[in-house]
Design a protein that fits this description.
Elements (H helix, E strand, L loop, with lengths): L80 E2 L3 E2 L2 E6 L5 E6 L9 E6 L5 E7 L6 E6 L12 E7 L10 E9 L4 H8 L3 H10 L3 H14 L4 H13 L17
Parallel strand pairs: 3-9
Antiparallel strand pairs: 1-4, 2-3, 4-7, 5-6, 5-8, 8-9
Helix pairs in contact: 2-3, 3-4
């Protein structure tokens, strides 16, 4: 895709976001959903369930979860895939984190000669985060942290975009994925459950409450820390299957990337 039409990127520094624990004015706080009790055995599909919330309001851009076909060297990155669910045609997910993580499947090795750009924009197309990244990594699942300059507002919609400039001979040629991010407050009752829960139980609680990005990142982090754990592996496979990413569940994790 020709990326020349996209707006110029402005590098900005990241600031911390304080935790938000209250509902927007005039809106009642929904009670947290408790995940089903987990036995000591490996988690089964019925014990980690992503309770997908309804999609954002009408008019939200649909987004693009896969890079798609392209030309020349960019064909190698056509399988670029953002691990974000598509609900009623909208690529989107919720988070409670100040600096949420975005997970992407990289189908081809990256080098310093193949730059990446990651941006976050608000509903008025203002850039809250924009950075250029260098990577020297093999194919696999890679993690990007989105650290906005200003605190994200709960229940507002933000657009993230990841672009790979895959053809050095033609800088305007690129492959990209993008979608919508929605911060949500962590209800006090759910926060109390999280405080005493294991990593797997935290992931189950996030999933049960429809908070995709936090559920995925918690499981990805735990899976890397406990690669031999049958529980971690079972939960990871189950969650990806529920979002249609079963083909990526066995892909390795690859380190990436430096701003």
């Amino acid at each position: 895709m020709n990326y020349a039409a996209l707006r110029p990127l402005v590098l900005v520094s990241a600031l911390a976001w304080g935790a938000v624990t209250c509902a927007p004015p005039g809106q009642a706080q929904e009670p947290p959903i408790s995940a089903p009790a987990a036995p000591a055995e490996a988690l089964s599909r019925s014990q980690i369930l992503f309770n997908a919330p309804p999609p954002p309001r009408q008019g939200t851009p649909g987004g693009r979860s896969q890079g798609g076909a392209s030309r020349g060297p960019c064909q190698d990155f056509a399988g670029l895939t953002a691990l974000v669910p598509t609900t009623d045609g909208v690529v989107w997910g919720q988070t409670t984190q100040a600096a949420p993580s975005l997970w992407v499947y990289l189908p081809h090795p990256l080098s310093a000669n193949t730059p990446l750009e990651l941006t976050l924009q608000d509903a008025n197309d203002n850039y809250l985060y924009a950075t250029s990244l260098e990577a020297d990594t093999s194919p696999g699942l890679i993690q990007f942290e989105i650290a906005p300059e200003t605190p994200l507002q709960p229940d507002q919609l933000y657009t993230w975009t990841l672009v790979i400039s895959c053809d050095p001979a033609q800088p305007t040629e690129s492959v990209f994925v993008n979608g919508t991010l929605q911060p949500v407050p962590l209800a006090p009752g759910l926060q109390a459950q999280m405080a005493v829960a294991s990593k797997l139980e935290q992931a189950r609680l996030y999933a049960a409450n429809g908070i995709w990005h936090d559920a995925l990142n918690t499981l990805a982090t735990h899976q890397q820390a406990q690669p031999a754990s049958a529980q971690a592996t079972s939960a990871w496979v189950d969650l990806l299957q529920q979002a249609g990413f079963e083909d990526l569940a066995s892909e390795p994790f690859s380190p990436c990337c430096l701003p």
